[in-house]
């Protein structure tokens, strides 16, 4: 069954093209790592797919449907650094923002929304921090709050921008447990990932990106030394390989 | 009501509406944008006057909204064309303001509209221009318009409270769940424009900036809750307005200047004494500061 299909997607920042004819298809229930060098357009790919950044052309289908009809079925986790953590709000409130799409215009969140948000915080091991001002949380805790916020959206497809960047080992494990659990529930999950060492452990599918798709498919087939070298260009150290 | 009463009421309305809008201004990191709009609404007022040939508050409100939207659209457009963010703000607002100044000097002539008045405001004149309202009687026009603007601002902020919160904190998430972030941006610019122009008569273009930014920046230092920040900011605005009036009466000096100065004093006190971010609390508990 189809989870996600992208055809001929291109995008630019001002005049320089950052994505050129991106094509790929991913099955429903896949957990995919997007891997590529800095400036390869990984974050941009997520933003363009969700129409947060204008595209030059191309089409995207979520479970066979266009974005318009699927918005409520899509969960997006921006980079942690993209928001102001000094904003006057607490962890529970941030998680509840994930429910604003369901609450409806001009209405305020109800007790059941609060309960849902608490349950999601609980799942991420953050229940004790619900009322903590968000600047008082560590980087890992902030990321868990973001994950909890995605969980309450109860989406069919998830797009996460570097959720494992700069987090502690315990948070990394907690997040991976959550991602596998989402996959177990047949959710389609795409994650921008930067750590080549863990790709094979974490993801069943991989998308190698450098302005365009270099390769994609099941990790075992695609994540080979040759393909990764081709994506990153020369100068990449492969796993434990130490230059002599 | 007494002459002093009207001035205090008008000044408090300025404090409340500017304090409320100011919170969103600070959290959306758009203080420079307020600087721009507080100047370009002058052009809106002048053009409204040239079109209608009368200094009516309602026409001015419309002119201000048009000028405010024009300003923010032009700034966005220049930025999208690669002009550096703050440079594009500087270029747009000084140019539009200059057009306003030139029009006043050449076209408006002897009307009750001059550059000094626009920049500094003159709250002492406010009680003399009145409108007649059924049941209520004669009230100063500026006070009446400020009341309406305050109601609009409060209705917009309270009605769309969670929408303002999410588009200010995480616009990407907001857009991804279908909240029209761009519409909210221009709605905010419109609210900022009508607040600015309504406060114009009382405090002028430069002092309105102090009323917009400083009470909100002070409130930000005292609380970690958004709702409380709104309340504190509005409260600080009123406090500064009233304290400013009495300081001016005591020293026999400019009222708008004293009000702006009072916001500055409030900010200094907050900066030194606020429990979480204040300088004093950091000195007293170095462990927390080092954390």
Automatic annotation (TrEMBL), chain A:
InterPro entries: AAA+_ATPase, ABC_transporter-like_ATP-bd, ABC_transporter-like_CS, Metal_Ion_Import_ABC, P-loop_NTPase. The keyword ATP-binding applies. The keyword ATP-binding applies. Gene3D superfamilies: P-loop containing nucleotide triphosphate hydrolases. Pfam families: ABC_tran. Keywords: ATP-binding, Nucleotide-binding, Transport. GO terms for molecular function: ATP binding; ATP hydrolysis activity. Residues 4-236 form the ABC transporter domain. PANTHER family: IRON TRANSPORT SYSTEM ATP-BINDING PROTEIN HI_0361-RELATED, METAL TRANSPORT SYSTEM ATP-BINDING PROTEIN TM_0124-RELATED. Belongs to the ABC transporter superfamily. This is ABC transporter ATP-binding protein.
Automatic annotation (TrEMBL), chain B:
One of its GO terms (biological process) is response to zinc ion. Keywords: Cell membrane, Membrane, Transmembrane, Transmembrane helix, Transport. GO terms for cellular component: ATP-binding cassette (ABC) transporter complex. It is a multi-pass membrane protein. Belongs to the ABC-3 integral membrane protein family. It is found in: Cell membrane. This is Metal ABC transporter permease. The chain crosses the membrane at residues 6-27, 34-51, 57-75, 87-106, 142-161, 173-192, 198-221, 228-248, 254-273.
């Amino acid at each position: 069954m189809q989870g996600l299909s992208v055809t001929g997607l291109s995008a630019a920042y001002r005049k320089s093209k950052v994505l050129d004819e991106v094509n790929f298809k991913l099955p429903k229930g896949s957990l995919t790592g997007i891997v590529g060098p800095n400036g390869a357009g990984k974050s941009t790919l997520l933003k363009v797919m969700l129409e947060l950044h204008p595209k030059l052309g191309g089409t995207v289908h979520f479970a066979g449907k266009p974005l318009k009809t699927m918005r409520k079925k899509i969960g997006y986790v921006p980079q942690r650094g993209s928001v102001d953590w000094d904003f006057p709000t607490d962890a529970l409130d941030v998680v509840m923002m994930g429910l604003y799409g369901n609450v409806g215009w001009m209405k305020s969140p109800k007790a059941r929304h609060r309960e849902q948000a608490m349950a999601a915080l609980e799942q991420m091991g953050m229940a004790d921090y619900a009322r903590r001002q968000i600047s008082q949380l560590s980087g890992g805790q902030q990321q868990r709050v973001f994950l909890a916020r995605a969980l309450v959206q109860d989406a069919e497809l998830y797009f996460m921008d570097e959720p494992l960047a700069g987090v502690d080992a315990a948070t990394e494990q907690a997040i991976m447990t959550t991602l596998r659990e989402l996959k177990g529930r047949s959710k389609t999950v795409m994650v921008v990932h930067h750590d080549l060492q863990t790709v094979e452990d974490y993801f069943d599918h991989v998308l190698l990106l450098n302005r365009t798709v270099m390769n994609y498919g099941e990790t075992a087939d695609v994540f080979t030394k040759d393909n990764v070298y081709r994506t990153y260009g020369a100068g990449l150290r492969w796993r434990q390989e130490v230059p002599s | 009501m007494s002459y002093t009463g009207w001035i205090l009421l008008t000044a408090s309305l300025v404090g409340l509406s500017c304090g409320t809008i100011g919170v969103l201004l600070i959290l959306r990191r758009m203080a420079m944008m307020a600087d721009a709009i507080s100047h370009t609404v002058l052009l809106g007022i002048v053009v409204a006057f040239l079109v209608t040939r009368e200094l009516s508050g309602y026409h001015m409100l419309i002119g201000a909204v048009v000028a405010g939207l024009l300003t923010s659209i032009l700034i966005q457009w220049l930025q999208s064309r690669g002009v550096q963010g703050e440079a594009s703000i500087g270029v747009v607002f000084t140019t539009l303001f200059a057009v306003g100044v030139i029009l006043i000097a050449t076209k408006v002539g002897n009307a009750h509209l001059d550059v000094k008045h626009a920049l500094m405001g003159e709250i002492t004149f406010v009680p003399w221009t009145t409108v007649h309202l059924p049941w209520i009687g004669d009230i100063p026009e500026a006070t009446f318009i400020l009341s309406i603007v305050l109601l609009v601002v409060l209705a917009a902020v309270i009605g769309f409270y969670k929408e303002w919160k999410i588009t200010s904190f995480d616009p990407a998430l907001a857009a991804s769940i279908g909240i029209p972030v761009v519409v909210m941006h221009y709605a905010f610019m419109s609210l900022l424009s009508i607040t600015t122009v309504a406060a114009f008569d009382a405090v002028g273009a430069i002092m309105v900036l102090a009323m917009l930014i400083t009470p909100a920046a002070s409130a930000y230092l005292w609380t970690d809750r958004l709702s409380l920040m709104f309340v504190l900011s509005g409260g600080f605005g009123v406090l500064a307005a009233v304290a400013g009036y009495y300081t001016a009466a005591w020293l026999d000096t400019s009222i708008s200047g004293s009000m702006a100065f009072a916001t500055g004093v409030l900010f200094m006190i907050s900066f030194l004494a606020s429990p979480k971010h204040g300088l004093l609390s950091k000195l007293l508990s170095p462990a927390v500061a080092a954390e």
